[in-house]
Every structure is written in structure tokens, then in C-alpha cells.
Amino acid sequence: MNKDQILARELGKVGAIGGGVGGFIGGGILIGVSGALGGASGAWIASRFLPTESYAYDYLLHCDAKRALTMIVNALAELGRFQDSSEINSSNPTISAVIGSGFMKMNPCMLTVEIVSHSDKETTAVIRGAAKEGVINQHSAKKAVTRVIEAIKVEASKIS
Hints:
By secondary structure, this protein is of the alpha+beta class. It has two domains: 3-47; 52-159, START domain (Alpha-D-Glucose-1,6-Bisphosphate, Chain A, domain 4, 2-Layer Sandwich). The chain is 49% helix and 26% strand. The chain has helices at 3-27, 29-47, 65-79, 140-159, and strands at 52-61, 80-82, 94-101, 107-117, 123-132. Strands 1-5-4-3-2 form a five-stranded antiparallel beta sheet, sandwiched between helices. Strand 4 and strand 5 form a beta hairpin. It is globular and about 45 Å long. It starts with a helix and ends with a helix.
């Protein structure tokens, strides 16, 4: 699945929750189920027409690649859900996850973090975020990347 398909799926989940809650409050369980289906399909269809905004940041870590990988996996595990497209065993391991971002962290953001080792003491985490944005740009991709960097800093302080 590519990032746009993943974002469409994740927005469908958010739409299902909103539609289900709204329908249940407005008319009970049967209307809630219908609302969830309508919310999911509506969000999924709408996501096809929304632009995907991206943001990337190269974050230099003063450690070896193995330690960087551990910190990044722990940080992403705290923030969201891993995706199947992760490649841990390659020369430059890449980890993918979806985390909530934007208003109330309800806008899903697809993140990939590539680990590039320079030496035993320096590794770069290439952090890329992508999110669908509507009329009002929430800067979800940038906010998600910033949250990942902050979470990596917390993980680094635990290990030090």
C-alpha cells in the first residue's frame, strides 16, 4: 500500500468513529451503525481529493545505528502504530508508522524514518511525514515529525 492509500484507510477509521458516535447520539444503535458506515466511506472518498502535504527533517543522533534504531522504535511505539512497510534488515533500516496529528491528533500522518549510519558515533534519522490537508492547513506532517523528534529525545535521555 502506498502512503495515500494508507492515509485514506486511516481517515476512513476516523470518519467511522465520528459518524458512529453522531448517529448513536442522534438515533440509537441502528443509526449509529449506519453513521459509522457513512462516515467511513465519506472520509475515504473525500481523502482521494485532498492534497497530501509532506515534511522531512534530518535529525543527527550522536550514537551508533543500533542504538538509534532502538530509540526510534521505542519513540514510534509510544506515538502510533507500525506499518508493514518497515525494512529493519536493510543497509539503511526504514521504519513506517501512522500517528495522529493536527487538531486533537485526529488527522492521521504517515511517517517513515530511515536510519543512515555515518560512524559508530553519528547516525542520521531521516524523518518524513505525510498527511492529508483540507481547506485549513493544520501542518499535520510537520507537527508529527516534530513530535517524533521530541519522543526520540526522551528515549535518548532514558538510555544515557
